[in-house]
């Protein structure tokens, strides 16, 4: 994922929110039935689709106690550059995908399965209209406690990060962040008592800690706190 960072401001109706209060000592949504399994984007720069669907799936599961697995391939094929800014395997921001879902709805992964590469957009007559029509998403104000409170209240969140050198990560707390520009989108699933962030990646379960990475909350922490998005549901 390598979009122009200036495009982050394309949505003039962006809502920046704060979630006040004192956050819990730690939050970890793994094992609580609100996160779909780790995926594998292969050679396609489609992490934005996994991050966007992951946030929708998890926040909706926390809200309604039902976990769906939404189609990444629909976003890859149908979220266009001309209208939403999405560039298929070349990347996009997850909130652009949420803009698309607000308009078009989304189907389950079983109905429109992931095939790793981008194809022509397929007919989607039964797409589920889930997101709020006027505000499909909010961006959190970039504050550590604000993000922690949102994780505790809403569930796992979409984040966009600088994943430079992540290919060498195997386990433990990652301290080798390169805080330059956003290259990847992930699902933020929690944080530890020591402040380390816990993220689900989309590079398969053989990478990292069964597909997850823990990042030290030092400096800007691989830009984890830069672009944090919560989907809104009707």
Overall pLDDT metric: 92
- Ranges where pLDDT stays below 50 over 5 or more residues in a row are 1-12
Largest sheet: 9 strands, mixed
Structural class: alpha+beta
Tell how many strands the DSSP assignment holds. 9
Judging from the principal axes of the Cα atoms, what is the shape? Answer: globular
Which secondary structure elements does this structure contain, and how are they paired or packed?
Blueprint: E1 16-17, E2 27-28, H1 47-64, H2 72-78, H3 81-84, H4 94-104, E3 137-140, H5 144-154, E4 157-161, E5 173-174, E6 184-191, E7 197-200, E8 212-215, E9 227-231
Parallel strand pairs: 1-3, 5-8
Antiparallel strand pairs: 2-6, 3-9, 4-6, 4-9, 6-7, 7-8
Helix pairs in contact: 1-4
What does this structure look like?
By secondary structure, the protein is of the alpha+beta class. The chain contains five helices and nine strands.
């Amino acid at each position: 994922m390598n979009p122009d960072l200036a495009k982050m401001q394309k949505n003039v109706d962006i809502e920046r929110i704060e979630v006040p209060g004192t956050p819990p000592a730690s939050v970890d949504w793994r094992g609580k039935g609100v996160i779909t399994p780790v995926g594998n984007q292969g050679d396609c720069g489609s992490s934005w689709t996994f991050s966007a669907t992951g946030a929708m799936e998890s926040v909706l599961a926390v809200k309604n106690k039902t976990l769906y697995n939404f189609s990444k391939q629909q976003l890859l094929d149908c979220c266009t550059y001309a209208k939403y800014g999405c560039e298929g395997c070349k990347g996009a921001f997850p909130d652009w995908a949420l803009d698309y879902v607000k308009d078009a709805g989304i189907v389950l992964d079983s109905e429109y399965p992931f095939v790793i590469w981008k194809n022509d957009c397929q007919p989607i007559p039964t797409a589920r209209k889930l997101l709020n029509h006027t505000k499909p998403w909010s961006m959190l104000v970039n504050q550590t406690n604000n993000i922690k409170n949102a994780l505790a209240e809403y569930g796992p969140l979409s984040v966009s990060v600088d994943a430079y050198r992540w290919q060498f990560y195997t386990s433990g707390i990652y301290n080798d962040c390169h805080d330059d520009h956003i290259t990847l989108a992930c699902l933020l699933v929690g944080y530890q008592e020591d402040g380390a962030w816990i993220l689900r990646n989309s590079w398969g379960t053989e990478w990292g800690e069964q597909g997850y990475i823990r990042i030290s909350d030092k400096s800007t922490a691989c830009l984890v706190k830069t672009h944090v998005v919560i989907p809104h549901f009707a």
